[in-house]
Amino acid sequence: MDQSHLLSFETLLSLHAVQVEQLLTELLSARTREGEVVRPERLLSAMRHGALNGGKRLRPFLVLETARLFDADGTAVLRVAAALECIHCYSLIHDDLPAMDDDDLRRGKPSCHIAYNESTAILAGDALQALAFQWLTEAPELGAQLKLALVRQLAQAAGMQGMVLGQAIDLGAVDRTLDIEQLERMHHHKTGALIEASVIMAALASGASDLQLDALERYARATGLAFQVQDDILDVTSDTATLGKHQGADSARNKPTYVSLLGIDGARTKAQDLYQEALAAISDFGAPATRLRDLAHYIVQRGS
After folding, report:
1. What digits encode the pLDDT tens for the residues 250-297?
2. Is residue 291 part of a domain?
3. CATH no. for residue 257?
4. Angle value at C-alpha 202, between 135 and 159, nearest 5 degrees
């Protein structure tokens, strides 16, 4: 992907982000179904702070572009994208808390517990998590059996078999030495689980075959891990203004990273190997998967 292509891809990312942000804004409006103002407003404001504060919206992009492979109903998959982004935003609010990663900056803005307070941030994250499942079950475009499958997939990815497990491993790894397999297991859960869920849930909602699901799962697994490897590289090579969070935070907390285990050149090689794995996984989808290939390339080129 040359520089002009990269710029056009970032434009495409932004267009997808606008779509999901519009739906998130609507779903996080200050009105209940009966038309009454939601109380307390401070909780809703904190939820909006966590969910509507920018970001690339990579997970919604994966949902929409995976569904595009199958010409699926855009309205239905947009609801899936919003639910996944809600889970992601809840996880960022909680990750930043003093008891977790203790970060006061997120996407260049004060973290939720700094902008409000710790208890409000906890509740805002809790509420966003619950809303994700509510929105899926209320989606009029999705059938009952599909809703059940999507809720199960999201719960598995978000909970003790996925993201929460990864965070627990991460917290337990501070000041410890992990080998590369242990590090990959941690990030497969912490970062990769929701990225995989984005692709799998979109494929389920689009009627993909078992063979197609397997290929897309392998793509998502490689892409999710590549995302984390590149994050570790950027934590060393980028700056706070670019990252939107404090540069060097992982090394300051003595956390194991791909850079600390493999060195900067080894981490870059690892990212490229994962990129090639992602491309190979979706080779049979041909031209319709071009944007998924572009996303994988974008992920390993961030900050270059």
Report:
1. 555 667 889 989 999 999 999 999 999 999 999 999 999 999 999 999
2. yes
3. 1.10.600.10
4. 60
